[in-house]
Amino acid sequence: MKRCLLTLSLLAALCAACRPVTEVASPDGRYLFVACNHDSKIAVVDARSMRMLGAVDADSYPVGLAISPDGRRLYATSQGRGGRGGNAVDIFRIDYR
Questions:
Q1: Residues 4-38: pLDDT tens digits?
Q2: I need a labelling partner for 86 at 20 to 30 A (CA). Which of 8, 38, 62, 92 fits?
Q3: pTM of the complete model
């Protein structure tokens, strides 16, 4: 996947407090999923408006993201910090509306 610097800059501004580390787009390109390392959350962003739609808790300090080809599963790896969490893979089911 090619990354767009403008998109990453907008994401950085949008999610500055959560310190975005990685982003991945849904297969149709409508949504961005962002690993918010500092808050241990995965944010969901509308790719057209760049508006954050919500966030879910993830294991401590998520760093890696991958999405299944059908867009129904999101995988997040976590690094942990200070003996808290990490070395884990979270699997999220995605229900689009």
A1: 444 555 555 555 556 778 899 999 999 999 998 88
A2: 8
A3: 0.80
